[in-house]
Structure formats: structure tokens, C-alpha cells
Amino acid sequence: xxxxxTQDVLTLPRKLPVSDKTNIIGLxxxxxxxxxxxxxxPEKQAKMRLGQLWQWVYHWGVRDFALMTNLAKxxxxxxxxHFTIELPEVVTRQISEDGTRKYLVRxxxxxxxxxxxxxxxxxxxxxxxxxxxxxxxxxxxxxxxQKLVRNLTAGEIVGQVMxxxxxxxxxxxxxxxxxxxxxxxxxxxMGMGEPLYNFDNxxxxxxxxxxxxxxxxxxxxxxxxxxxxxxxxxRTATEIGCLLAVSFHATTDEVRDQLVPINKRWNIATLLxxxxxxxxxxxxxxxxxxxxxxxxxxxxxxxxxxxxxLLEGIPAKVNLIPFxxxxxxxxxxxxxxxxxxxxxxIYHAGYASPIRTPRGEDIMAACGQxxxxxxxxxxxxxxxxxxxxx
Length: 390
Ligand code: SAH
Ligand code: SF4
Hints:
Residues 120-361 form the Radical SAM core domain. It is an enzyme of class 2 (transferase). By secondary structure, this protein is of the alpha/beta class. The protein folds into 2 domains: 22-84, Orthogonal Bundle (DNA polymerase, domain 1), CATH 1.10.150.530; 89-382, Aldolase class I (TIM Barrel), CATH 3.20.20.70. Helix content is 34%, strand content 17%. It is built from 11 helices and 14 strands. Strands 1-4-5-6-7-10-11-12-13-14 form a 10-stranded mixed beta sheet, sandwiched between helices. Strands 2-3 form a two-stranded parallel sheet. A two-stranded antiparallel sheet has the order 8-9. Strand 4 and strand 5 (101-106) form a beta hairpin. 42% of the residues are buried. The chain binds S-adenosyl-L-homocysteine and iron/sulfur cluster.
């Protein structure tokens, strides 16, 4: 691993909004409509006002009511009296030598989560968080060694998408020709936390992000990754409609119990049953099986053959993730040869088996590394404060 290239490129003042006004960000259409009426919008106008406001906020990215020029001046004032348009605060931004960007984001209460933007030639993926820390304790995941502090609100989840668009300069410019290539073309719920343990907020946030009058990312451009919270899996299809990824990682219950302890509650057979029943499952909407490659733990040819057997009857692709090491991690990454041999067996059985290229390793932005970066950032800030005599 190389040393950080650009650390703390952007450091913004830390402030927390103290306000009794309602933050618009993250409210569903129904919630926002009700809030507009409660604030004095005549019911007959509510639908139209909602549409106008929604476009300003989510299509144009405007944060100031005064700029919403198709609303009457006194209505803009009414909005400003009752509402705010606020995102979580970006504390630091780091840019990897491979172009990956990592944002350390501060939410109300002073907690921090991380958001990672991964540019590729044909797409740009934003990896967002759903919780501060995680209640689960997968033994290879650094986030899992951090206790859950709290669930993120829908606004804090939508806010991660909006602040990344701010940083990338991705809001449309009025009067300019429509830009067809989207910098953030895909969203993955693969940051910190177990999204299915914060289902309602994740669902409401994704509804806002998918809404056609706003950010308008299609449901197939969103992938939710779960460790296997079986009772909530079907709702992902029926209530959000996005694609599903499952942190599978092992081919026997004995090994999966060790790696993904939620397996003790819902074992491989139960999980596979839920996946087979995933509503809308088809070849064009396959389930992604994530499989972290750990040397000597789950990476043999026998494992690969067992995995193929387990996948039978499920439209699936297997995403092999070379283990990303973190200080004190009890595992090592499998060798390149091992990973390729494993991938070949899966591929020859008829499943796509891409090997995920680790991105942003120099800034600890790769899968499963997200906790340590926060701690390092904290440490360096403490060090800076000490040096400054604060
Ligand atoms: N909590 C959810 C989503 C976040 S993790 C889940 O577990 O699915 C996103 C992916 O990164 C998961 O497949 C997770 O198992 C994997 N991961 C965690 N730690 C990792 C590490 N150190 N190296 C590689 N992948 C890791
Ligand atoms: Fe939580 Fe996912 Fe990490 Fe497991 S892999 S501890 S579920 S964030």
C-alpha cells in the first residue's frame, strides 16, 4: 500500500445547523406535500408547489429559496420561514492517485460517515453509507469492528448523493444543452452499515434519488448490498425495486458462521431460498454474489465448485473481491493465481465472475476499509490540534 497522495485536500469549517425549521432534503413527496400544507400552502396549490420546489431542489440543485424564480416572492419568504435545504457537511475530501474520491462527511450529532466516488471509463459509481458503524461483526470487515452509533436519516442518505454532485459539479446549468453522460451513473449501498437494518430510511432516500423530476437515477442503476437479512430481502424488490447484492463469502455454514455471523441466524439454505424467491429476478436483473477472497479460508477450487452448485437456479453473477487489508486484520488476500483459478471455474459454469479491482487503496477507500480512515482522520486532527496548542 502506498502513502496517501492528497490528504485533507479540502477542509471545511465544521458547523452543525441548529434550527427548528424542517429540512426538505430526504422528505418523500407525500411528506413534503403535507409539510407544505402545514406551513400554509393552500391545499389546492400544494401539488403544483410541490412539483416546482422538487425541481428546484433535486433537478437544479438550488439551495436558496430566493433563487426559485417561478415562485411568488412572498411564497419564497414563507418557505424560508419554515424550511431549510441542508446537506451533511463535507469535512475532508481525499483524491486517490487512481481518481477515486473519498469524502468524510459529518452528520448531526458530530458523527462521521464516508462516501466514495469511483470513476471508471464507462460509469461513475458512488458508494454511500446507511449507518454510522454497523451492528454486525463480519470478521474481515473493519466497519464491523466499529459499534453502531446510529441509523442515518433519509435526508443524510440523499445528502451523500447531493454533496458528491456538488463536488463533481454535476448539477445541470440552466440554458445549457443537456449533458447525457452522468458522472454519477450508479449508486451502490456498500459503504458503512447494513442497509436492510435501516430499511425505511434507505427506501425513502432511494425513492427521492430515483424520482424522475429530480436526480432521476433509474432503479437498475442502484445496487443494495446486504449481509443476508433474510426477512427484509423481498421488500428490497417490492418497495425499492433496485438491484440486489449479497455478501456471500463462503460455501459452507461452518465457514460463513465465522465470516458473516448473521449466518447463524439465517443460514446459507435459508438465504438461498429468499434469493430464489426475489421478486422480479431475471437474467437481466441478476443477483450479485459478493465473495471476498481470503487466503486459505474460502478460496479453494472445491469452494468454487460448491459455490456453483449453490447458485443453481438463481440468475446470478459473482463479484470476487480481493481482500483489502487493514491494520490488525486476521486475514490475508488470496494470491492472484488463486483468485483467477476460482474465477475460471465460476465462469465456465456459465456465470459472469469479474474480479473487483481495489480502488482508492492509497486513501483507505476500498471495500471494508472505511473505518480506519475515519480514525486516522480523527487522529491527525487531534495531532494538529495538539500542535496548535488547542
Ligand atoms: N453491510 C453490507 C454493505 C456494506 S459492505 C454488506 O455487508 O453487504 C460492501 C462489501 O464489501 C460487502 O460485500 C462486504 O462483505 C465487503 N467487505 C467488507 N470488508 C472487506 C474487506 N476488508 N475487503 C474486501 N471486501 C470487504
Ligand atoms: Fe456490517 Fe457489511 Fe461490514 Fe458485515 S460486511 S460488518 S454487514 S458493513
